[in-house]
Amino acid sequence: MNMETNLRKVPAVEFREVNYLLPRGQPLLSNLNLEVRRGETLVVLGRSGSGKTTTLKLVNRLLKPSSGEVRVNGTPTAETDLIRLRRSIGYVIQEVGLFPHYTVEKNIALIPRIEGWSTKKISARVEELLQLVGLESTIRSRYPHQLSGGQRQRVGVARALAADPSILLMDEPFGALDALTRDQLQREFLSLQQRLNKSVLFVTHDLREALRLGSRIALMEAGRLVTVSSPEGFVRSPDPLAAAYVRAFEGEFGLTGNRGKA
After folding, report:
1. Which of the two ends of the chain, N or C, has the fewest CB atoms closer than 10 A to its terminal CB?
2. pTM of the model
């Protein structure tokens, strides 16, 4: 029990003085210190080239830091078996990344099959996840090209959740969808997070999405962390860059008078 209690106090993900340089020495991340608390959705917000996706890829070692340390559940990722690390983290991207020659069922069941689950257990888990993400059981035998964009994204989320990871990495997962589908999936994500209580690192360039989904918002610019705050604190932040974001989105989406309630 003491060990479990202590683990809850350890951040799910932690960046300690992390730098990432391109081969020619150009910095993409500089002195990043950031943590994802257990059960929260930390949204990393920023423009293209700000370092958001680089930050995400350092967690599951798609990239390795040039210096500094990334920790997952208190253990440095450099000291963790790569396969075990990646299987323990759910990963959802904008393009979904489903295998086109696999059915929906086989896509969702990928990690459980690798982990050696029984056929009966896998089938039950697929059914459970389809219901969880709002898809009919009849979709199990379809292929990705037979699905709508929203359906493919739901399958991608289901696949990420298949082995019940404690951490989810989500890189602009709803960015390629039309406005109505995106709104619906954002609502479903909030409902899922209330039920599952995962630790989520969520990348977006959309302030409305950040305000809606984030427990906290980390603003990045040119590879540096600018500020971290609650959604309510972000829209009232004295930081010039944060204030510029808020002004731009107030003008474009009419957020005035609804700060922190997106």
Report:
1. N
2. 0.89
Which of 15, 244, 205 minimizes the C-alpha distance to 234? 244
- What is the tally of structural domains in the chain? 1
Q: What is the largest CA-CA distance in the chain?
A: 55
Identity of residue 195: R
- Which tokens belong to 50? 């700000």
Structure confidence by residue, pLDDT tens digits, 118-140: 999 999 999 999 999 999 999 99
SS3 92: strand
Q: Which residues pair with 171 in a beta bridge?
A: 93, 203
Q: Percent helix, strand and coil across the chain, each rounded to 5?
A: 45, 25, 35
What's the rounded Cα separation, in Å, for the pair 92 and 193?
14
List, in sequence order, every residue forming a beta bridge with 164; answer none if it has no partner. Answer: none
Question: Contact at 8 Å (CB) between 106 and 125?
Answer: no
Can you give the residue range of the structural domain that contains 111? 98-152
